[in-house]
Specification:
The protein has helices spanning 15-26, 51-59, 71-74, 78-92, 107-118, 120-131, 136-147, 150-155, 159-173, 202-211, 222-233, 245-253, 257-261, 270-280, 284-291, 298-310, 314-317, 331-343, 352-355, 361-377, 389-392, and strands at residues 3-8, 31-37, 40-41, 45-46, 65-69, 97-102, 179-184, 324-329, 348-349. The chain is an alpha/beta fold. A seven-stranded mixed β-sheet has the order 7-6-1-2-5-8-9. Strands 3-4 form a two-stranded antiparallel sheet. Helix 6 crosses helix 7 (136-147) and helix 14 packs antiparallel against helix 15. The longest helix is centred in the C-terminal third of the chain and has 17 residues, at 361-377. 46% of the residues are buried.
């Protein structure tokens, strides 16, 4: 069995994602696995459609098995996001290759850049630049250019390249046998606000869905289109913060500076600025704009605020992967699941009611957090959803 994988959010699954899956299979791999963010994504937002719908759409469009990336990783920095995903895939025990889209398809150059970012000299320079007010991305880019080379620094100027470098760093850190494989991103760029032929960025497609513009159908596979259309009609999509902003602020206003200090991503007095902003402003965007600075970018603050709302502390975020949660699979995915069951040291969760007993105390804590996230997610959809979906939703 040749099994390849990708780290994904599929928010939503679009033609570019299908292209990546097709590249993996055309390269001789027999099976393709996705480890996918659940109901919250790395941008610090709720996914436009819930994890069960997105996993189903992916399996109907070329992915054989979808497993869940726990929210403690999906709401981390690029480094934490990549590490949690790569470590989980490595612990599956049967993954051979990791595919990812990038603006640079030269995997060797990406590996060279990974070595640069990981070097002690660059690390010390990043600390110096950060202490002088540089944002972390700018500090990394500047340090690599100064100490290593322009070509490595240029790699880091593109968002998908940066994430690819973090995947490679994570693979190296855990001495994984998984081989990184970069695929040149096709069509529209990351976060591009225009389409390119049949390809559009996920953010462009999301904006069409959120605004009620049916033009999103041009950029996603027909099977995904049907799922999105039906979920919109039934009121379970799209989720957005504005649907329950008061409830979000209500929770945030109950937090103290002492509580906020323990939240993942909070440091250097940010807890006091957030505490004041939560009590002063009536909209989350106003809170972010009032606190945003060079060191704390908009995206980083979105993640911090979502972590605060969900109760994701630094201790929880440091937890190692505890289980493999299956969200969706096809008949081919069953073969992969058998291989995982044979080779993985982690328990596999298919039916939570039956399988939760396999978990350690740390595993149960992480899984209970995922259930809480799903229950809260149901307050941000057009129609309020019932609690307990992690236990009642069957595997597709």
């Amino acid at each position: 069995m040749n099994i390849s994988a990708t780290v994904c959010e599929y928010n939503p699954y679009h033609n570019g994602h299908k292209y990546l899956a097709d590249c993996a299979k055309s390269g001789g791999d027999d099976y393709f696995v996705g480890i996918m963010s659940g109901n919250v994504v790395q941008r610090g937002e709720f996914a436009v459609a819930d994890k069960f719908l997105r996993a189903r759409a992916a399996v109907l469009s070329g992915v054989d098995l979808i497993i869940e990336l726990p929210c403690v990783y999906s709401l981390s920095s690029a480094e934490g996001f990549a590490y949690g995903a790569v470590k989980t895939l490595d612990l599956c025990g049967c993954i051979d290759k990791l595919y990812f889209g990038a603006e640079c398809e030269d995997t060797a150059l990406l590996m060279k850049t990974s070595e640069a970012v990981s070097s002690c000299r660059v690390y010390e320079r990043i600390k110096e630049l950060s202490s002088s007010g540089y944002s972390h991305p700018r500090a990394v880019h500047t340090a690599v250019r100064e100490i290593y080379s322009d070509d490595c620094a240029d790699v880091l100027s593109m968002p998908n390249n940066t994430l690819g470098v973090e995947y490679i760093r994570a693979l190296s850190k855990i001495s994984s046998r998984i081989t990184p494989c970069a695929v040149l991103r096709k069509g529209a760029g990351h976060d591009a606000d225009t389409a390119c032929g049949e390809y559009a960025s996920a953010s462009f497609v999301r904006q069409k869905i959120l605004s009620g513009d049916t033009a999103y159908r041009e950029y996603i596979p027909k099977t995904v289109c049907d799922i999105i259309d039906k979920s919109i009609e039934s009121g379970v999509c799209p989720a957005r913060l504005q649907n329950n902003q008061r409830g979000l602020l209500q929770t945030l206003r109950t937090l103290t500076p002492e509580t906020l200090r323990e939240i993942n991503g909070v440091g250097e007095g940010l807890e006091n600025r957030l505490y004041k902003a939560f009590r002063e402003y009536s909209a989350i965007d106003e809170v972010i704009q009032s606190v945003k600075c060079k060191r704390y970018t908009y995206a980083r603050l979105c993640r911090v605020i979502m972590c605060a709302y969900l109760g994701i502390t630094k201790r929880l975020a440091a937890t190692q992967p505890q289980y493999i949660r299956v969200l969706s699979m096809n008949k081919r995915g069953i073969d992969v699941l058998r291989a995982i069951n044979e080779k993985s040291s982690l328990p596999v969760i298919i039916s939570p009611a039956k399988d939760k007993g396999k978990l350690t105390d740390a595993g149960k804590e992480l899984f209970d957090l995922e259930c809480r996230v799903t229950d809260l997610y149901g307050l941000f959809t057009p129609t309020v959803q019932k609690c307990g979906k992690d236990y009642t939703q069957g595997i597709f």
